[in-house]
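Appendix B: complex inputs.
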Amino acid sequence: MTALSAGIIMAFAAAATGIAIGWLAAKSVEGTARQPEAGGMIRTTMIIAIAFIEAIALYALVTAILIWTKI
Amino acid sequence: MEHLLEHFVLKPIVPIEVGGLDLSINIAVISMWVSSFLMLLLVWTASRRVALVPQGRLTNLVEVIVDFVNTSIVEENMGQHGRQWFPFLFSLFMFIWGANLIGLVPGFFTATSSIFVTATLAFIIVFPTVHVYGIRKHGFFKYMGSFVPKGVPVFIAPFLFVIEMIGALAKPFSLTVRLFANMFAGHMVLLTFLMMILEFKSLIIAPMPLLGAVLVTALEILFTSIQAYIFTTLSAMYIADAMHGGH
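Resulting structure:
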């Protein structure tokens, strides 16, 4: 049962992260296409935003690992 | 599956116990020493030949790294006042980058994949630096007052202050978990691929997990560099927040 809950936690977090980062990357590419001179700034901001969103998915991973090893 | 977690258990090589605390030397300590020494050696060797036009490949490499940290991290976030912060942020960046990269060498352990190391980095190195700097620059009461945004009604201010305090504690916590979980998860994926070779026990299927392990190692090099950059950039942002007095 704990394995099932850990799997469901991670599945939801991964799905939400995938949708969020995909949308973010699409908007970044669109913004770069509209104004190529701002490409460097947009790329830097995109990488920082991806790290933030991925951190939320990794909170879920840490929770799943805590449940799995029963701490 | 217990085998995978066993790779993260640290066995003491030289047991040292001081007053009940376990300060023994294990592979994580040795990896941190080796990676810090290698980074020091790299930067020191390049600094022997400082000239207006850099000569040689090693000097050029270190110049690229120094220029990257200076432009993207210090000047981006703190402007011209940030020159004094460059040594601290450069040391932080090189330490995290070195400790992350040395884990990819077989035999060494990624020190930042242990939550104690990242918690030390975030809670003991970055968090006091930010707030002590803010208190010394603005004075204690003015710095506490900067937690509350301007122009709010008086009766909401205590709640906003408490929420901002919780936010100030959440920031180093998120730095810790972000770095730890990225390194830990990266190495778990690598170990899973390598375990697949042992699980199937067949020579025909073996090249596929091996290829996966090679690709994941390449991805790990990219991710470790990005995580070192993110940690340092966020620390620079928090210091800049304390410099400009919050909101």
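Chain A has one domain: 2-68.
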